[in-house]
């Protein structure tokens, strides 16, 4: 039996890897199941973009009402996003990246997934990172 945290992490991953058209469809599908989701595009040099990635995840989570505007909720999103960034940063160190952040909240679980394409001449490398936190309802 799959835990709720695993289910929410998988949904955040789906949001990070889907295209814009799929994103709108998935928002409706998951809303019917009581799961709030959002996604936001990111890009640039990974080293200089970390603060922007954290900010983008936080703003998206607030705008789409995945979290309340309070310290505990904001800290959970920032913490989960930092976990995901740490997982991708070493592979992308100093490189230009483009990709997406997917965020899902189901009950007390919130997951943040970062999916990136790393530009290396004509070879594109991909990397994915995920973070999770538990929040009071």
TrEMBL record:
An example Pfam family from this entry, by short name, is HutP
Q: Does the keyword Transcription regulation apply?
A: yes
Which CDD domains does the record cross-reference, listed alphabetically? HutP
Q: Please give the start and end residues of each transmembrane region.
A: none
What keywords would UniProt list here? Activator, RNA-binding, Transcription, Transcription regulation
Q: Which GO terms describe its molecular function?
A: RNA binding
Which SUPFAM superfamilies did the record assign? Hut operon positive regulatory protein HutP
| Alphabetized InterPro entries for the sequence | Regulatory_HutP (IPR015111), Regulatory_HutP_sf (IPR036482)
| Functional summary from the UniProt entry | Antiterminator that binds to cis-acting regulatory sequences on the mRNA in the presence of histidine, thereby suppressing transcription termination and activating the hut operon for histidine utilization.
Regarding protein family, the annotation reads: Belongs to the HutP family.
Q: Could you give the subunit structure recorded for this chain?
A: Homohexamer.
Tell me the protein's name.
Hut operon positive regulatory protein
